[in-house]
Design brief:
The chain is α/β, with parallel strands linked by helices and 218 residues long. The chain has eight helices and nine strands. It catalyses: (2S)-2-phospholactate + GTP + H(+) = (2S)-lactyl-2-diphospho-5'-guanosine + diphosphate.
Length: 218
């Protein structure tokens, strides 16, 4: 089994955070999120796919992961390229921005994989934040947009045994300043929370219907 983590180039990272974090801070946020994800994947073979040489160097030297230099633009193309270059049939695909994932989640997925062809964990916005495939040729990969629904449709169309792994912690991907608040509430003992605290970031409750909390910088 191989775990595939596609990573966007540093210069296009998390633009919705650009008013809150500098380019260098967004890069370091990503690197810390990757460290948390790798910790949850302890013991599994990991390959990181990216066009960005700095990301590939970090993956190889700091995370001790395999790397694939992305040839074509687009998330689906990156994953298809990884499928072509790895020998493993059985795969898990995980994005680079779900730092609340835990080893327990992976243990659950591995147990479930004995009975299912496809396991999928949705994001809060209807995306796919974890996808397990018994064989990488089972479905057509359809990331972007409401990919959770697209992948479910693929599984049903092909009469696959599928399981929806509904986890709040996996559903949290980090794209906006408010998303950072989830790290403060649920991310104790993570590299990501420690890094955000080092920047003087904190979270306060918001007593209104317009969001759950306010994320601030000192």
């Amino acid at each position: 089994m191989k775990v595939i983590i596609p990573v966007s180039p540093i210069n296009s990272l998390k633009t919705r955070l650009s008013e809150f974090l500098s380019g260098e801070e967004r890069k370091n946020l990503l690197l810390n999120m990757l460290k948390d994800i790798i910790k949850a994947l302890d013991g599994l073979d990991i390959v990181i796919v990216s066009r960005d040489e700095e990301i590939l160097d970090f993956a190889k030297n700091e995370l001790k992961a395999e790397t694939i230099k992305e040839k074509y633009k687009g998330l689906n193309n990156a994953i298809k390229q990884a499928f072509e270059e790895i020998e493993d049939k059985e795969v898990i695909i995980i994005p680079a921005d779900i730092p609340l994932i835990k080893k327990k989640h992976i243990e659950d997925i591995l147990k479930l994989s004995k009975n299912y062809d496809l396991i999928i964990a949705p994001s809060r916005g209807g995306g796919t934040n974890l996808l397990y495939l018994k064989s990488k040729d089972l479905i057509e990969i359809k990331y972007e947009g409401f990919s959770f629904l697209k992948h479910l449709e693929e599984a049903k169309k092909r009469n696959l045994r599928y399981y929806i792994y509904d986890s709040f912690l996996i559903s949290v991907d980090i794209n906006t300043p408010e998303d950072l608040g989830e790290i403060f509430i649920h991310g104790n003992d993570t590299y990501t929370k420690n890094y955000l605290k080092s920047l003087g970031i904190d979270v306060e409750p918001k007593h209104s219907s317009a969001g759950r909390f306010v994320v601030k910088r000192r």
